[in-house]
Amino acid sequence: MGSGQMVAVFGAYGHTGRFVVAELQERGFVPVLSGRDLDRLHALAASCPGLEARPASVDDPASLDRALDGVAAVINCAGPFAATSAPVIEAALRAGIPYVDVAAEIEANVDTFAHFTDRARAAGAVIVPAMAFFGALGDLLATTAMGDWTAADEVHIAYGLSSWQPTGGTRAAGAVSRQRRGGARVVYRNGRLDHRQDEAPTLKWPFPDPLGTREVIGEFTMADVVTVPSHLSVPEVRTYMTVEAARDVSAPDTPTPAAVDEHGRSAQTFLVDVVVRSGGTERRAVAGGQDIYAVTAPLAVEAVDRILTGRTRTVGVASAGEIFDAPDFLRSLSSHISLDLCPWHEGVQLPCKGHDRGQPTGRGATAQRVGDEAGAGTA
Ligand SMILES: NC(=O)c1ccc[n+]([C@@H]2O[C@H](COP(=O)([O-])OP(=O)(O)OC[C@H]3O[C@@H](n4cnc5c(N)ncnc54)[C@H](OP(=O)(O)O)[C@@H]3O)[C@@H](O)[C@H]2O)c1
After folding, report:
1. pTM for this predicted structure
2. Which residue has a Cα nearest atom 17 of ligand 1?
3. Nearest C-alpha to atom 6 of ligand 1 is from which residue?
4. Could you tell me if the CB of 135 is within 6 A of ligand 1?
5. Is the CB of 102 under 6 A from ligand 1?
6. Per-residue pLDDT tens digits for 182-233
7. How far, in Å, from the CA of 301 to the mean position of ligand 1?
8. CB under 8 Å to 289, separation ≥6 — which residues?
């Protein structure tokens, strides 16, 4: 439990920030509410008795310093992160506290690794970007699926979303990323990020039950192409998205998420099906749950808890899969996600049916192409 430690949430009144604030309270931390809009900040504080509101703007470093004064860590939920990551990281470094964000933007996450790796390592600081549904969950699953492998040929992360009602922050982040890459789409091949102008392919992906085989947009590239290769030796990382969700998120009139339960979660369900391939052998790990925004909160808060209790494997800028014990981290989220993991990482050497196979299965690398269709990662 959080033992009453204060954790600042920048962007606290956003859709994801609110889930993070609630999760921090649930876990025994004391959230410090921060953000740039005084009215929205005070409205949130009024609905959370006893919590302090500290207005701050990325253009005003002193305001960020005041927001982080005396807190144990900061979680940045304010996106587009192209504008917020660097100033909030700088403030965290000045305060000498860990920094966690939920950035889905590929370019912003690349920037965090590029600009802060050396300084953070030299300072012994911990910075975990993309500690969220996109960027962390797939990385934790891929790291778990790798087990005793130190390298693989390919990582495939298939997102089986039932639908995707995007928040304003998701749309804004997608627009910023599209602008930064000049309208091109991004792929991770031959050990590097590359830009493509052609349409992303449409494929069939054999998700486990209850989803079953579904059409997906191949090369719907998400933040995992930054986090996974930041620490795993894999030259090819591909991410896929169910066509229904890809259509939802790109349609201009799709509404924002609507709460359907007492936790404020939407009806959206997800399966994240991860396949790693080395030679002729594939290993797999799967997670399922409800609402990609809501589940980001336990991911980010569990990360903070582990950082503050020393359950980390490195310092500097690191992805979830590198800095945490991936299978242990995933299992700790059992009240939020269902898991299908094979226990080879606990020393079991025998392949498991459906997880570790001697022959390529037609999943992953050989997912069947059914035609071309527009679509590409939004962030
Ligand atoms: N990786 C993932 O899986 C994942 C999951 C959830 C969310 N996210 C990302 O998190 C971000 C927020 O998402 P959301 O769902 O919470 O969206 P949201 O409800 O629209 O909230 C956006 C938040 O960001 C703040 N913000 C935006 N630009 C800012 C700036 N320049 N300075 C300070 N605050 C700023 C907003 O404050 P104002 O009202 O003052 O603009 C608001 O608090 C998005 O970028 C989204 O892509 C990623």
Report:
1. 0.93
2. 169
3. 293
4. yes
5. yes
6. 989 999 999 999 999 999 999 999 999 889 999 999 999 999 999 999 999 9
7. 17
8. 269, 270, 295, 336, 337, 338
- Alpha carbon distance 362, 205 (integer Å): 9
**Where are any strands of DSSP class E within 59-184?**
73-76, 99-101, 126-128, 154-161
Yes or no: say if 319 and 230 are a contact pair by the CB < 8 Å rule.
yes
CB of 379 within 6 A of ligand 1: the answer is yes
Percent of the chain scored above 90 by pLDDT? 88
Cα 369 to ligand 1 centroid, rounded to whole Å: 35
- The pLDDT > 70 percentage for the chain reads 89
CATH topology of domain 6-132+298-308: Rossmann fold (3.40.50)
Contact 17 CB / ligand 1 (< 6 Å)? yes
Residues 6-29 have a mean pLDDT of 98
Report CA-CA distances (Å) from 229 to 113, 131, 138: 12, 15, 12
Distance CA 147, CA 94 (A): 37
Q: CA dist 158 to 16, 174, 227, 288, Å?
A: 22, 19, 16, 12
Strands 281-290 and 269-278: antiparallel
Instruction: Tell whether ligand 1 has an atom less than 6 A from the beta carbon of residue 112.
Output: no
Is residue 121 within a helix (H) or strand (E), and if so which, with residue range?
helix 106-123
End-to-end CA distance of the chain: 33
Question: Relative to the CA of 83, which ligand 1 atom is closest?
Answer: 31
Task: List the domain boundaries for the chain.
Answer: 6-132+298-308, 133-292+333-378
For atom 42 of ligand 1, the residue with the nearest CA is: 14
Q: Residue 81 CA: which ligand 1 atom is closest?
A: 45
CB 84 less than 6 A from any atom of ligand 1: yes
- Say what the pLDDT of residue 2 is: 65
Nearest-CA residue for ligand 1 atom 11 is: 79
Three-state secondary structure call for residue 15 = helix
Q: Are 141 and 274 in contact (CB under 8 A)?
A: yes
> What atom of ligand 1 comes closest to residue 78's alpha carbon?
24
Written out in words, the top-level CATH class of the domain with range 133-292+333-378 is alpha beta
Closest atom of ligand 1 to 18 CA is: 16
pLDDT in tens, 331-379: 999 999 999 986 554 433 333 334 443 333 334 433 553 332 223 344 4
